[in-house]
């Protein structure tokens, strides 16, 4: 098959991507190439892919609606040009704004919904020649009444993560720094327990993200609670393997959690709020703890020594391997191509 994968216009794709959608696209299209299929990818300049990259311009400065519009136009033009010159069997979208550059061509199209369904434009439900899939059972259960969406659970490259010979004793928060991810809760908890915490991840150039960092995160940083900035795959794997536990105090219904999967692959327990798909990723009392409040999270931190690193690693390998995910997408492509 010839598969055209289309990324979110504003962020590059690659092994060091911070966004979950970009990480999944990178792994799936790597799997396509490994399986002998032709992979074409439309993504921002600076992306790294296994197949053929057709880059669209990157935009510096604040990510305004005007900038988003320019990026969407560039994506739409590249998609149309590709479909006019290449024989494409499936177009697979990964961006939140995919509805803005859906082509009119009659090629089968798939959109993976990486984010909460209410974050997407309602226009996605009236699009023709389009199939959508969710990444967890809890996300699929939130679909509008009568709409049944297929589920392809996310995966990670478990082999890129290893158990450390010794833990360094710090708590870890890792991800996009924005209000809904609850970084301030993790910092407040670390102060409350007088424990070291490392915060890692990008502050994207959206105004509300920058304001959140300066107003709610930065004032809680000190010599013991440190922000280390964005991290690539190598540094991320080191931080995860050496952490005492990973904290996920998310304030929104998570559709999945790649960082939780990566922590478990590193033998590191996860303590997470009962949010969306997190109970599908973390087995309470076995690979970490699912909690209902900051108070319960504080108590769970005291019990993180009860969790076996080896059990976490085995659990991750058995459930989250990226090859299973790629095989499921290939099956879904085949069904779309056959019209079944």
Write down the domain tally.
Answer: 2
> How many separate helices?
11
CATH level-two architecture of the largest domain:
3-Layer(aba) Sandwich
Tell me the CATH superfamily of the largest domain. Answer: Glycogen Phosphorylase B
Low-confidence stretches: none
Q: What's the rounded overall pLDDT mean?
A: 95
Order of helices and strands: EHEEHEEEHEHEHEHEHEHEHHH
Strand content: 15-25%
- CATH class category of the largest domain: Alpha Beta
Kindly provide the radius of gyration, computed on alpha-carbon positions and rounded to a whole number of angstroms: 20 Å
By helix and strand content, what is the structural category?
alpha/beta
Beta strand count: 12
Biggest β-sheet: strands ordered side by side in the sheet:
3-2-1-4-5-6
Quick one: overall form?
A: globular
**CATH topology tier name of the largest domain:** Rossmann fold
Biggest sheet architecture: 6 strands, parallel
- Helical percent range? 25-40%
Terminal residue distance: 17 Å
Q: Would you kindly provide a brief summary of this structure?
A:
With 340 residues, the protein is an alpha/beta fold.
What this model shows, in words?
It is a single chain. Helix 1 packs across helix 11 and helix 7 packs across helix 10. Helix 7 links the parallel strand 10 and strand 11. This protein has two domains: about 170 residues, Glycogen Phosphorylase B (Rossmann fold, 3-Layer(aba) Sandwich), CATH 3.40.50.2000; about 160 residues, Glycogen Phosphorylase B (Rossmann fold, 3-Layer(aba) Sandwich). The longest helix has 21 residues. It is of the alpha/beta class. The chain contains eleven helices and twelve strands. The radius of gyration is 20 Å and the shape is globular. The two termini are about 15 Å apart. It has a six-stranded parallel β-sheet with strand order 3-2-1-4-5-6. The model has no long low-confidence stretch (mean pLDDT about 95).
């Amino acid at each position: 098959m010839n598969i055209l994968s289309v990324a979110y216009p504003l962020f590059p794709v690659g092994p060091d991507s911070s966004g979950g959608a970009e990480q999944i696209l990178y792994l799936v299209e790597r799997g396509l190439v490994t399986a002998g299929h032709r992979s074409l990818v439309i993504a921002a300049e600076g992306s790294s892919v296994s197949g053929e990259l057709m880059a669209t311009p990157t935009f510096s400065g604040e990510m305004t609606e005007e900038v988003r519009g320019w990026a969407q136009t560039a994506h739409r033009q590249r998609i149309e040009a590709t479909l006019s010159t290449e024989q494409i069997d499936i177009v697979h979208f990964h961006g939140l704004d995919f509805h803005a550059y859906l082509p009119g061509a009659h090629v089968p199209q798939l959109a993976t919904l990486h984010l909460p369904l209410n974050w997407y434009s309602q226009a996605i439900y009236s699009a023709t020649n389009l199939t959508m899939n969710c990444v967890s059972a809890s996300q699929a259960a939130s679909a509008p009444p009568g709409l049944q969406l297929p589920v392809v659970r996310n995966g990670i490259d478990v082999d890129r993560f290893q158990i450390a010979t010794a833990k360094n004793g710090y708590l870890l928060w890792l991800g996009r720094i924005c209000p809904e991810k609850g970084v301030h809760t993790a910092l407040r908890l670390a102060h409350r327990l007088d424990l070291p915490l490392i915060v890692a991840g990008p502050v994207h150039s959206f105004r509300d993200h920058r304001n959140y960092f300066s107003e709610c995160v930065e004032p809680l940083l000190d010599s013991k609670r440190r922000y280390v900035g964005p991290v690539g795959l190598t540094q991320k794997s080191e931080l995860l393997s050496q952490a005492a536990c990973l904290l996920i105090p998310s304030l929104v219904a998570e559709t999945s959690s790649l960082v939780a999967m990566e922590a478990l692959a590193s033998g590191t327990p996860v303590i997470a709020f009962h949010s969306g798909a997190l109970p599908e990723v973390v087995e309470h009392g076995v690979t970490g703890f699912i909690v209902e409040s900051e108070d319960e999270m504080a108590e769970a931190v005291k019990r993180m020594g009860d969790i076996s690193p080896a059990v976490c690693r085995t659990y991750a390998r058995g459930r989250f391997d990226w090859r299973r995910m790629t095989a499921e997408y290939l099956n879904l492509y085949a069904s779309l191509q056959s019209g079944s």
